[in-house]
Automatic annotation (TrEMBL):
Species annotation: Salipaludibacillus agaradhaerens (Bacillus agaradhaerens)
GO molecular function: protein-disulfide reductase activity
Protein name per its UniProtKB record: Thiol-disulfide oxidoreductase DCC family protein
Highest taxon of the lineage: Bacteria
Pfam families assigned: DCC1-like
């Protein structure tokens, strides 16, 4: 099995589901694999990687073993996408104590603003191989 960075996302959040679709379209090299945070696979990975601070929106687990949450995860994901999205990585120079409160504000209101599903998203048959769960 090929080693890929893993994105753990909130599988019932419409914003998160749309973000996964956005990433898939801009990741033709299949750099990323996905799992919903509600899945057993994600729970096991979080425990295995000893990710202590609760993250309920996005976690990036790199093939080198490092993990990132919140704005750090989102910006490192953007850095790997094709096109101008790579430029978002420049925002990593902004200290995390400034970036994360903005990220958490959006994350806290994401269900109200973008909606929530009763069930986790179902990938299309062509996307299925990109999902761990």
């Amino acid at each position: 099995m090929e080693k890929r960075d893993i994105i753990l996302f909130d599988g019932v959040c419409h914003l998160c589901q749309s973000s996964v679709q956005f990433i898939i379209k801009r990741d033709p090299q299949n750099h990323f694999a996905f799992a919903s945070l509600q899945s057993e696979i994600a729970k096991n990975l979080i425990e295995q990687k000893e990710i202590t601070e609760e993250s309920n929106s996005v976690v990036l687990i790199k093939t080198n073993g490092k993990s990132y949450k919140n704005s750090s995860a989102a910006l490192r994901i953007a850095k790997e996408l094709k096109g101008v999205w790579k430029l978002a990585a420049i925002l990593l120079i902004i200290p995390v104590f400034i970036r994360d409160p903005i990220y958490r504000f959006i994350a806290r209101h994401r269900y109200t603003w973008f909606g929530k599903s009763e069930k986790c998203m179902m990938p299309t048959p062509s996307q299925r191989r990109r999902f761990l769960d």
